[in-house]
DNA sequence: CGGCAATACTG
DNA sequence: CAGTAT
DNA sequence: GCCG
């Protein structure tokens, strides 16, 4: 369980954070958001801080849970609810009307593509929804803000008051004149919870001033004097360690906070994600000696971890000592599921029981680990080839970036939205390759900081060719895409997408059903011939379509872990998927199960014979959708689970991983799809092969890269070594969102 | 023009 | 084997 | 769809 101290720290962070937010927000409004209220409460009753906070929070959760729980449970009603919208669109369809070409493609589409697309597609909607709530983010009067800021910080450090010297900042803001930086939507505040100290720590220079304000805009706080709680020291002006240390009273750079140069901040801006600080280009020159401190910050400040990190990182490519391997695994485990101590697990379960249903504010539960570790959620540059142009540290211009549109978002947002819809449309057309192309173009566009206006500009971006360039120009100039409007007017698409939203239904099946005359889920449920999985898929259409809040993923995992440990105290697990990549919500729950030195058979036996039956009996596991029944082969369990008291089923995937394959399995199960595909493509270009079991060399390939020989195993257990052997800079999970 | 990741489970 | 899944 |  998180210690009391930590909890208080966390609350403090949120408080300060919101205080700064308010400052960025010019509109005077008295509505105060929850965390602030809680914080205020905590302040007044120091003795009962936690109780007050938790009680208040519990009340909120309960309320939200009830509101959110109106989902019907029975099959028919669920179905009809879903259908409601659809029926309106129910138009006599020319079922066999000539529809595009691309039919040859249809048999080979990659389901993952579509799945991913659907997820992406839901993003704009979510964003839009959360926009209003952003508008009512805390706005309290400055005087109150200052007051509580001082009170707040007094406890942990008397100097803390300088952290949020509001009047000061406010003043400077005015000096900024026209350069107002409204806070970006909460969801995009990737720097939230971080506290920066700049070297030099002033905003005299315009570039630095701009960066500071931009950092605040993205959720960070600026300590304009040294104080406790600083998470990052950001060295500007190309100062080296020696020069930088002169800026401190003690002539020494304090340990503790992560030391980075300003490139780090710039890259965080351009990627809209908290970049890993350990990369060379972020090191302040001459700072080798401080590296370990950085590590410590990045990881979860856990003692054993530091040691492991040390031993591993000393030589990036070290020989695989058993210890090294173990350390790595331990690290992974600790970083993910293992971090959830039993206390937290109990908490999770107790919460669930007492609340009946859950709908937990993820921003809250998430921070539970450490404030300086806020998981970034967003996109990311492509791993290799793309590096040519869009990337590079021309980001030096970042601070000049004009904030046109005022949305505080990527200037190409409009274009991106349209292109994603096109991609979505093509996926509903069964054209996996076009879909892929659109998605890759969007990824490229996401990294662009300037607005791409013309075909010419668009063509300079890798991943965008003639056709897309024209479409982009069309979008920018007339604000829409004729092609897209046509596509969206096509009612078949909606149905196709509706059907493909069913678990275990892909394009061929969906289009066959349409051809058979089905138009609604109800039709299907009653008339179509469905296999068991599809039936379940329809019964829980809404459940499976919903995103899962990060906190809930952790709760599911906690339950699995408890059963796992009960069966075998040495068994371990790691939560993979988008959870491991740091997402605030996930499409499903991916868990790797393994045990030191254990082979697949052992893990499988443990799971199939003990853990899974137990969890099923317990009522946690609801169904098995795809799982090996042969007792002597198979490595996965796909099914659904629900928290006690919750009616919402979640997709749960378990992967049984032999100790020797842990690294490869981690890569596979961490994703995302496109990241894996690019890694694997990269491998195959190097006569290697990467799959969930390991990285292999000397692969012979025939026509069309068809494999002839299996190759010999190079590495399977160590995730980082796989990257190294491939010649790819290691990327932590949260940076694998191409 | 061909390739665009590579594999596991189902029926 | 095609289809769906990851 | 894009790329080589």
Automatic annotation (TrEMBL):
<dbReference type="InterPro" id="IPR002008">
    <property type="entry name" value="DNA_pol_X_beta-like"/>
</dbReference>
<feature type="region of interest" description="Disordered">
    <location>
        <begin position="42"/>
        <end position="181"/>
    </location>
</feature>
<feature type="compositionally biased region" description="Basic and acidic residues">
    <location>
        <begin position="97"/>
        <end position="123"/>
    </location>
</feature>
<feature type="active site" description="Nucleophile; Schiff-base intermediate with DNA; for 5'-dRP lyase activity">
    <location>
        <position position="471"/>
    </location>
</feature>
<keyword id="KW-0548">Nucleotidyltransferase</keyword>
<dbReference type="Pfam" id="PF00533">
    <property type="entry name" value="BRCT"/>
</dbReference>
<keyword id="KW-0227">DNA damage</keyword>
<keyword id="KW-0479">Metal-binding</keyword>
<dbReference type="InterPro" id="IPR037160">
    <property type="entry name" value="DNA_Pol_thumb_sf"/>
</dbReference>
<keyword id="KW-0235">DNA replication</keyword>
<dbReference type="GO" id="GO:0016829">
    <property type="term" value="F:lyase activity"/>
</dbReference>
<dbReference type="GO" id="GO:0005634">
    <property type="term" value="C:nucleus"/>
</dbReference>
<dbReference type="InterPro" id="IPR036420">
    <property type="entry name" value="BRCT_dom_sf"/>
</dbReference>
<feature type="region of interest" description="Disordered">
    <location>
        <begin position="359"/>
        <end position="391"/>
    </location>
</feature>
<dbReference type="InterPro" id="IPR027421">
    <property type="entry name" value="DNA_pol_lamdba_lyase_dom_sf"/>
</dbReference>
<protein>
    <recommendedName>
        <fullName>DNA polymerase lambda</fullName>
        <ecNumber>2.7.7.7</ecNumber>
    </recommendedName>
</protein>
<keyword id="KW-0239">DNA-directed DNA polymerase</keyword>
<dbReference type="Pfam" id="PF10391">
    <property type="entry name" value="DNA_pol_lambd_f"/>
</dbReference>
<dbReference type="Pfam" id="PF14791">
    <property type="entry name" value="DNA_pol_B_thumb"/>
</dbReference>
<dbReference type="Pfam" id="PF14792">
    <property type="entry name" value="DNA_pol_B_palm"/>
</dbReference>
<keyword id="KW-0234">DNA repair</keyword>
<keyword id="KW-0237">DNA synthesis</keyword>
<dbReference type="GO" id="GO:0003677">
    <property type="term" value="F:DNA binding"/>
</dbReference>
<dbReference type="InterPro" id="IPR002054">
    <property type="entry name" value="DNA-dir_DNA_pol_X"/>
</dbReference>
<feature type="region of interest" description="Disordered">
    <location>
        <begin position="291"/>
        <end position="312"/>
    </location>
</feature>
<dbReference type="InterPro" id="IPR018944">
    <property type="entry name" value="DNA_pol_lambd_fingers_domain"/>
</dbReference>
<dbReference type="InterPro" id="IPR043519">
    <property type="entry name" value="NT_sf"/>
</dbReference>
<dbReference type="GO" id="GO:0003887">
    <property type="term" value="F:DNA-directed DNA polymerase activity"/>
</dbReference>
<keyword id="KW-0808">Transferase</keyword>
<keyword id="KW-0539">Nucleus</keyword>
<dbReference type="GO" id="GO:0006303">
    <property type="term" value="P:double-strand break repair via nonhomologous end joining"/>
</dbReference>
<dbReference type="InterPro" id="IPR001357">
    <property type="entry name" value="BRCT_dom"/>
</dbReference>
<dbReference type="InterPro" id="IPR028207">
    <property type="entry name" value="DNA_pol_B_palm_palm"/>
</dbReference>
<feature type="domain" description="BRCT">
    <location>
        <begin position="186"/>
        <end position="272"/>
    </location>
</feature>
<dbReference type="InterPro" id="IPR022312">
    <property type="entry name" value="DNA_pol_X"/>
</dbReference>
<keyword id="KW-0456">Lyase</keyword>
<dbReference type="GO" id="GO:0046872">
    <property type="term" value="F:metal ion binding"/>
</dbReference>
<dbReference type="InterPro" id="IPR029398">
    <property type="entry name" value="PolB_thumb"/>
</dbReference>
<comment type="similarity">
    <text>Belongs to the DNA polymerase type-X family.</text>
</comment>
<dbReference type="InterPro" id="IPR010996">
    <property type="entry name" value="HHH_MUS81"/>
</dbReference>
<dbReference type="Pfam" id="PF14716">
    <property type="entry name" value="HHH_8"/>
</dbReference>
